[in-house]
Write a structure and sequence with these properties.
binds calcium ion, Recoverin, domain 1, two-stranded antiparallel sheet, mainly alpha
């Protein structure tokens, strides 16, 4: 449903009509006022006024740009056939990432960030890539490799790679960790 609405909203420029805001607010963790503010921010990123933005534009959002995983995070925004992001998909992804989203929404976003090759599983290599970007030089490559292998081995029900369930279970009791990386404080005040 969100996808089909995307095409509709992407053709709309200027302020959103109240009924559009109401429809959008049913699916996201933002208030109607916040949605209007985010729409203004979206339009500023959409400098050519086409109603859609490219993934690179997301790097201009400071709240995302300061995240160590920003290069991965921009990949979880759903795009249309041309690889562009509509306002609906922009809003729905920011909503998953926002501090107001539920743990299950954040876990869903986190899983997509970890699962770089999008095969529905998180491998030790994929954990290694994420950890490397997050810990910087605080750990040696060997240490990161060991932690990644051990984590996946312990958490994966097949001992090889984590399914969505394995992943959720691993982070279920570590909500703070997920929140610190995937709980983005989106500025929604003009
Ligand atoms: Ca994968």
């Amino acid at each position: 449903m969100l996808r089909s609405m995307g095409a509709y909203y992407s053709s709309e420029l200027g302020a959103l009509r109240p009924e559009e805001v109401t429809a959008l607010s049913e699916n996201v963790n933002f208030s109607p006022k916040e949605i209007q503010t985010l729409y203004v921010r979206f339009q500023k990123l959409d400098r050519s006024g086409t109603g859609v933005i490219c993934r690179d534009s997301l790097l201009k959002i400071p709240e995302l740009a300061m995240n160590p995983l920003v290069d991965r995070i921009v990949n979880i925004f759903e795009t249309d056939e041309e690889g562009n992001i509509t306002f609906t998909s922009f809003l729905s992804c920011l909503s998953c990432l926002s501090i107001n989203s539920s743990l299950s929404e954040k876990l869903s976003a986190a899983f997509r960030v970890y699962d770089a090759n999008n095969d529905g599983y998180v491998s030790a290599d994929e954990v290694f890539e994420i950890l490397s970007q997050m810990v910087g030089s605080n750990m040696s490559e060997d240490q990161i490799r060991r932690v990644s292998n051990d984590t996946v081995k312990a958490a994966a029900s097949d001992g090889q790679r984590m399914s969505r369930d394995d992943f959720n279970q691993l982070f279920q009791d570590r909500g703070d960790e997920i929140n610190s990386v995937f709980g983005v404080k989106i500025v929604t005040i003009e």
